[in-house]
Design brief:
The protein is mainly α and about 190 residues long. It is built from six helices and three strands, in the order H-H-H-E-E-H-H-E-H.
Length: about 190
């Protein structure tokens, strides 16, 4: 079954707006991802840093430097005591994520009934445990209407749209392979 082209049904003025936006690197998502605005610095000196990729032996160790010892202990205790998937999502994942300024950009645990199916309809609707996204009022309404099957996961008008980050969790008795497959499916629905 061929993949659906979400741009095929767009009006020319919407396509023009999408192309213009993509040339500038897309919309500003800093508020969605909860990153602070960059601060201007008077110091113009730059230092070269090396990137750590999944191919680097120290890749797993990078996470140890991201959190304080207290945060790590809080996460470890929460993770050890969480016996159900819902507890992991509500407690442990939120420790990793940190403070979210706008909870209206978060969602999860409901099926994406408004998305166009990836196949002939035999796959169930994606239902991520947790995701980050945009609020409906943050995007152009005509754009959302025309691309509804691809950017608006729910028919409920107050639910987040234009999803950009997914998390799946499993309790200790469940397979991490299942979480991986679910996360891949969630991402495929978003792509």
């Amino acid at each position: 079954i061929p993949a659906l082209d979400p741009l095929r049904s767009c009006k020319p003025e919407i396509l023009k707006e999408i192309k213009k936006l993509s040339r500038r690197g897309g919309p500003d998502l800093s508020d969605i991802r909860n990153f602070p605005d960059p601060h201007d610095s008077d110091n113009k000196t730059t230092t070269k840093t090396t990137s750590t990729t999944a191919y680097n032996r120290n890749f797993n160790n990078i996470w140890l430097t991201m959190f304080s010892k207290q945060q790590f202990e809080e996460f470890r205790e929460t993770d050890m005591n969480a016996s159900k998937e819902k507890h992991i999502v509500r407690l442990a994942i939120l420790i990793i994520e940190g403070h979210i300024d706008d909870v209206r950009c978060m969602g999860g645990d409901y099926p994406f009934r408004n998305f166009a199916p990836l196949t002939d309809g035999t796959l169930t609707n994606a239902k991520p445990d947790h995701f980050l996204s945009a609020r409906p009022e943050q995007l152009n309404h005509q754009f959302c209407d025309e691309l509804s099957d691809f950017v608006v996961p729910s028919t409920q008008k107050d639910h987040p749209i234009a999803l950009n980050f997914f998390q799946e969790a499993k309790d200790p008795d469940e397979s991490s392979a299942v979480a991986t497959r679910q996360a891949c499916y969630d991402d495929a629905m978003r792509a």
